[in-house]
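HOLO CASE FILE
Compound: adenosine-5'-diphosphate
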Amino acid sequence: MQRINLLSQRLANQIAAGEVVERPASVIKELLENSLDAGATRLDIDVEQGGVKLMKVKDNGGGIVKDDLALALSRHATSKIVELEDLERIGSLGFRGEALASISSVSHLVMQSKAVAEPDSTGWQVQNDGQDMKACIKPVAHPQGTTVEVRDLFFNTPARKKFLKTEKTEYSRIDEVVKRLALSRFDVQFNLSHNNRAVHQLLAANSDAEKQRRVGLVCGPAFIENAVAIDVERAGLRLWGWVSLPTFSRSQADLQYFYVNGRTIRDKLVAHAIKQAYRDVLFHGRHPAYVLYLELDPAAVDVNVHPTKHEVRFRDSRLVHDFLFSALHKALAEVRPSIDPTVTQDRTGYDATPMNPGAAQVFNSEGSQAALRLQESYKLDTSLSEPRVTNYYPGDRGTVSAKRIQAQMVALGKLSEHDEEVPPLGYAIAQLHGIYILAQNKEGLIVVDMHAAHERITYERMKLACQNEELKMQPLLVPVSVAVSQSEADCVEEHHETLLQYGVELERVASESIVVRQVPSILKDSNVEQLVRDVISDLIEYGTSERILAHQDELLSTMACHGSVRANRHLTIPEMNALLRDMEATERSGQCNHGRPTWIYQSLSDLDKLFLRGQ
Ligand code: ADP
Ligand code: MG
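Model generated. Tokens follow.
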């Protein structure tokens, strides 16, 4: 039997490093967060060989006074909290007081600093030596602020070093960390260089235009061109930032930045709420892109749940989930055609990554919906917004009202007189190969995929009808009994009322058994047991479930697809115009139910460029 030993300082720190220092990028994250906590407005980051050889972070923050230097490198030493209560209102990024101690136990770390509080000193340097990690302090010349240099990461822990990937991979993780932090602090300048080559030079961004520019530099110009800005505030919660149009989706969840009170996090609840908001508009298996900031009372979030602080816990997770979902859902619903005069048409100099397959095929990736900025404010000409009775709906009686056609003819006439009031999607000129509608508005050409557009319109209409009518419950002829766990059955009892609102009636009949008595009538032929199981697990995990609506929407979507105008059907000009007006009035009409774009736009100046006119 071995006797008990007290571990050496270094070994204890090396064990702690296991949690926070996984790879070079984790070091960069800790160093940058320290600099930001110190109030720096400029950060210079130098990396060599993917960070394994060298990582150096220089800041112009408040610095550290000489007497605190040794403490800065010891474990459980921090200037950011003093007592337990402080943990409940954390305003800083760090607070655990172990990053520098951990990092210096597995690398050669040297810190130089000059504190604002010591104007007469020229600066001091500190590093740790030996198994007991004794601090050696000596004078140096350093401008105000702090520089931390970390060399030879994991030199003394060869087993960990083996887990490192190639230089390129490690560097790309560092790059990602820097980008994440750069998006959290627009007011701070970030310079990053790798192997002595400057990679990012992000100047402080103060105006909205400068912030937008930084987002474009970090996320790529295509993102910001295809994103809508949002800013919603309710019940002490604020959500702002940029979300991609559904037609700009990604095959990977790699362009997703979410911040809670300035701290970047990855959170299941947040991811779920966002996914739900995009549910209805995104191509299957695609991922939305976003840069979003959630601001709320610091006391309403617990950040001390994970050593690298990537996760947080919301005190009222249900409230946060619902707020995120409804704010985004609404923003996306409002995406419909409208002209925003503030959007510049000049997009030269951007190397547009193809993201909008529809547009790319037709217009060489130049033309896209983004050129027509989408916004909610467009109001229809009242003469056109009478009850929509149009005969492009199959099965309809072919009644385009005479008044309507007349109104459109008048409007068309107006167009030729250069009237100001041309609707965003303009007026139809022709139908192409029975598939596309060509239309012109004041500034250019619109091409509409008529099946895709009509499908969305039908779908939205069916959803509305369904919300009003068919959420009505239908008793099951033979009630389905489902064996569940005790906690699931408890959940059913607790959420009985909520479930009724969704149109589902469940009853607990034994401690581990429930019976499904009623479901929404449209879902009566689906796999009731599976649906109920999924709903319960949602309720347990998120306190809410969108599954019933989602499932219902899926069915409606399929029905809408079958009930929509097929290709190769001849439409008259008034029919086409009626479709265009419906698109303008319909929520989410920028994409079909499968997330494909329904229309694209090419301005005259874009066309001119294609033909090299005026060059
Ligand atoms: P924490 O950030 O959790 O407090 P660290 O080990 O990262 O723990 O840092 C320990 C302390 O060293 C910090 O509380 C802070 O006072 C000081 N410190 C670290 N980096 C800097 C810096 N760049 N500028 C000023 N002070 C710093
Ligand atoms: Mg820290």
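CASE NOTES: The domain at 9-200 is CATH 3.30.565.10 (Heat Shock Protein 90). The pocket of magnesium ion (ligand 2) is lined by residues 30, 33-34, 94, 99 (CB under 6 Å).
CLOSED: yes
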